[in-house]
Amino acid sequence: MAERLVLGPLVGGLSHDRVNLWARASGPGMLHAWVGRQADLSDARLAGAALLVASSGFAGRVAVTGLRPETTYHYALTLTDTPPRPTAGAFPSFTTAPQPGEPRDFAFAFGSCFRPGVSNNGQTLRHLDGLRQALDLRFVLLLGDQIYADEWNGNGLGYVALTEEDYRAVYRHVWGHPAWRNLMQRLPVFMILDDHEVDDDWAWTSPERYEGRIPPWHPIIRWFKGFPSEARRLSHRRIQAAIQAYWEHQAMHGPPLLLPPDGIAHDRPLLLPADQGSFAYTFTYGPAAFFVLDTRTQRVYKQRLLNRAQWEALENWLLKVKDRFPLKFIVSSISVLFEMWGDFTRDRWNGYPDERRRLLHLLAAHKAHNTFILTGDLHSAHAVEATLRAPDGELLTVWEFCSSPFEQMLNKPALFAARHVHTPPLVGHRIHFRLAEPNVGVVQVRFENGTPRLTFSIYDDRTPEPRYQVQPGR
Ligand SMILES: [Fe+2]
Prior knowledge:
Number of strands: 24
Number of helices: 8
Distance between the termini: 61 Å
Bound molecules: fe (ii) ion
Largest sheet: 7 strands, mixed
CATH topology of the largest domain: Purple Acid Phosphatase, chain A, domain 2
Oligomer: single chain
CATH superfamily of the largest domain: Alkaline phosphatase D (PhoD)
Radius of gyration: 21 Å
């Protein structure tokens, strides 16, 4: 039987001169990438090919290099070496980024948490596709819970994902949703995992990373459901399986990792005890520099959120981009600046107060003006404005924008149980809005007299106008 593409195509690792084109096939083969300037691909050239093999779940990406900045290309991925037949309709396209540092107006979207079927059956993503066209969105950042591997209701399995094949099957089920597939081939993506790519609120039990832990109620509930012991604990083997599927679907098409884990050169990331690697990466888009944190794969329960190597990378990045890029975005799958009464899971930065102080102190001490935190995870959206005091007394404003969920159970308590965050060097904390409905965030950058002005908007799943909007500095 002829193999076919079962997921994708999608465009990852967007930069000013290259992209990665990704897809997953039903079986072994060769993935061919075709790129052209004409919408019907009558001028298509073969940009490269990648072998699809069983050990990486028949997922692969072709690095397309030598592209021109700020240029629109059309593309197609095929499993044969014959060029795609020119069609009446347009092939999907992407537009390369501006040169790093170039002052440009642009807009992008971000959000998290997708469990299709739980409320609006993909409507937020269909709405986002409309916003993509209306607002000329250039990419979307997906901040975690791109699948819910452990939610047996709705993961396509009917049980907690346990093996590599299980985790792959969940991706195939969730990402095969028409709204997801349609959007992702038209809007370049940057992704990072949160907890549900592995299991709910998981962490390692020790820095050696021998085994993981999940909150204590899960083993009990899963025992009552009759799930096997492997589902009631979090073994190294299961985390390894989840991370393998994560690599295949979310990371292999992203920008190069800052500290690649051992094994990724062979598309088999290993979670070795002493390995300092993580899935953190950076990228730029014109005037904006992004650091995408990996807050999960080096987390040790109640001990650390990031390991030493990632802290160093973050600090070095900040020093490098602080003055060169007028806008800095720190992307964290979990919230830094939002807390709720009764949040006993402490699965966010509030559970690691020393490291949260360290992060805020880093921004204050280096006077990292125009730094914005992007986050998800909460199943509610918000904008928080925080004032930090630098060691010399100077005040600095940092914003946190949160968008969550695309589709998941809603966090209504966020509307009344939100509390102010009190931690040095924070001297002010203002919550501008909250929204507990399916939503997506949009950041628009517009230059006025040489100064970039930013607008953060939160859209629900159907209204063409934003539900809330803030303009920092106004
Ligand atoms: Fe979530």
